[in-house]
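Slide 14.
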Amino acid sequence: MARKRKAVEPKIVKAPGIDPKRRVSAAPDGLYDPADPGHRWERPLQAPGRMQVDFEERVDFRRLHEYRLARTRNALAKSKLGALLVFDQYNMRYISSTVIGEWARDKLTRWCLLTGNGEPYVWDFGSAARHHKLYAPWLPKNHCLAGNVGLRGAINPRVGLFEAAAKEIRDILVQEGVADMPLGIDVVEPPFLFALQKLGIKVQDGQQVMLDAREIKSHDEITLLNMAAAMGDGVYQDIFEALKPGVRENEIVAMATKRLYEMGSDCVEAINAIAGERCSPHPHNFTDRMIRPGDQAYFDIIQSYMGYKTCYYRTFTVGSATGPQIDAYRKAREWMDRAIELLEPGITTDQVALAFPKSTEIGFETEMSAFGLNFCHGLGLGLHERPLISRLNSLKDAYELKAGMVFAVETFCPATDGVSAARIEEEVVLTPDGAKVITLFPAQELPIANKY
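Slide 15: predicted structure.
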């Protein structure tokens, strides 16, 4: 009779503990570069659904985290700085991949430190630091700290919070061997700056380093920007259908804001809504003005999906269009197309700036007074990144465009009737073959909403 075999329990392999200093990819260092943007120019630009799925790759957020941190490390290594201390929420999100919402945008009560030798440190508002320890495993737990320096003066500086925070930062710089090197800062409250300097820390501009890092968008960033643009496409269809006499500018803003949040926007920063006699000069806001038959009306959708922005103008007329309105739109479109045709890697920004009209052609005395009407600006976590191309700055400080840049191209033309104006904006991804437009609501000709 055969002996009965003793049952063998399956071997249990335990997952290793999370080592924050070990990057996510298991590939050898020689095969994997986290700073590689991973562009897939041979494929159409993605605008996938927003749900997670197991049957196709969409946005890989951990890969996105790695890319942004690697880009920052590389930019820091090229600078003469030993570390970066950032308070700008876009820079903080880029480095640490943490965010606590639009509330924090103007508070200067969150900050992040990255040295050339270490992992990001995050000081956050109260319990948010504990939340990061639980839900942000890409950060070392002992690098998530509670921080508060007074909420822009609400707590008197006499309490000493600035000095305590500065000492905490100085101790980390010493620990990581960069205390004798300059510290780059983007934006800061003066008392915080003074406290750092009092400890002997040499402070320099870190914003330029961060803008260098954020300049080239990865495949995942471009996908998020394209998804955000697709949301704008849909809202413009809603606006086109809603533009009827009797509706007010603020009602269009309310409708657009609601739709964007329903679509998944994480922040509707602004919806500009301008109509009728308010169109020229451009006021950059909205009111409760009622739309009337024959009005020209233009809108700007400024919102973000997973932090990535849109800046997306479209112009309409209501019911019918006049000759001056059509002519203004045609000129704005011509300037737009002229600029986009130039866009390719290797061209310099001064060449693009010359495609835009001079300030005097649109009724302004100087390029400063006309700034923001005919220009380009980079898009990413921030609304104004590189490249920023205009006659104000680019003829003095030209630089080369590169594949992987994403930016908005804006034009404005006042009508000869003295009140109407056309405003168009296209968002583009710069591919090796030129500009790819990702704002797809039709804009080649002046759209007439609810035509009579």
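Speaker note: Confidence is low (pLDDT under 50) at residues 8-27.
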